[in-house]
Design goal:
Helix 1 (15-26) crosses helix 10. The protein is built from ten helices and eight strands. The protein has helices at 15-26, 45-52, 79-83, 95-101, 105-117, 130-134, 138-149, 179-197, 217-221, 238-247; strands at 3-8, 34-40, 59-62, 89-92, 121-126, 162-165, 205-209, 228-231. It binds 2-phosphoglycolic acid.
């Protein structure tokens, strides 16, 4: 399985800077056998697409999406709208949305199903917070989050989703989860996927996110069961993200 590397700019880079980032990143030497994507703010999708031209690397991703195709949902963006930009992936359920906007497992499940239906791969983000880990509840919490989020997905031959394990305490903290601890949680996640999708679950990538940088990325991508990374802070500089992409090349 090819590794998947997703840059998550979060709330950085409007259209002007987005175009610059894409152009600079396109000058990087990129490995062929890694799938590379960049999750940009909605308002920067058009600029990112324009700067990409016909190029398909990095694949465009959105950072969120609504669950209906159209209707009286002021301020929301539908999967079909994202598709118009050639968006290939869409983050759903990022912990910053769960905590800042009160996104629930139920909402995440509806979003993931709608995104898949539109032909976009949902990258479903899950992860326990610090208190939950201290209490020894991490696996239980993550298992429940994954079970809920994949409830509406269909096994339609293609990988129906990717899962990003992002322990909340590791995001933006400079305190990454060790590759061995991440591996353990990825096994828990794989168990849930296997139960729902059977053999087709083998196509689903389970990636790690949380303070991934140039010093630690190779540890993750060389650990069995970790199929790539979701990178926030370390992706803001296109050259740095280029470095990460090269480091993610298992060859
Ligand atoms: P970080 O963010 O790499 O800055 O920790 C990861 C994420 O939230 O996607």
């Amino acid at each position: 399985m090819k590794k998947l590397l997703v840059a998550n700019w979060k709330m950085h880079y409007g259209p002007i800077k987005a175009g610059g980032w894409i152009r600079a990143f396109r000058r990087e030497r990129l490995p062929k056998d890694v799938d590379i994507s960049v999750a940009v703010p909605f308002v920067s999708l058009a600029a990112a697409r324009a700067s990409l031209g016909r190029a398909s690397i990095p694949a465009l991703a959105a950072q969120d999406c609504f669950w209906s195709e159209d209707g009286a949902y002021t301020g929301e963006i539908s999967p079909g709208m994202l598709k118009e930009f050639g968006t290939e992936y869409c983050l759903v359920g990022h912990s910053e949305r769960r905590s800042n906007l009160g996104e629930t497992d139920e909402m995440v499940a509806k979003k993931a199903a709608a995104v898949q239906k539109a032909g976009i791969v949902p990258v479903i983000c899950v992860g326990e917070n610090e208190a939950q880990r201290k209490k020894g509840d991490a696996s239980k919490i993550v298992r429940a989050q994954v079970q809920a989020a994949i409830g509406g997905l269909k096994a339609d031959g293609r990988a129906p989703a990717a899962i990003a394990y992002e322990p909340v305490w590791a995001i933006g903290s400079g305190r990454p989860c060790s590759a061995q601890d991440a591996k353990q949680m990825h096994e828990v996640i794989r168990g849930v996927l296997l139960k729902k999708f059977g053999k087709a679950s083998e196509e689903i990538r389970v990636i790690y996110g949380g303070s991934v940088d140039v010093r630690n990325i190779s540890e993750y991508v060389t650990t069995t069961g970790i199929d790539g990374c979701l990178v926030g802070g370390a992706s803001l500089d296109p050259r740095n993200f280029g470095l990460l992409c090269r480091a993610a090349n298992p060859a």
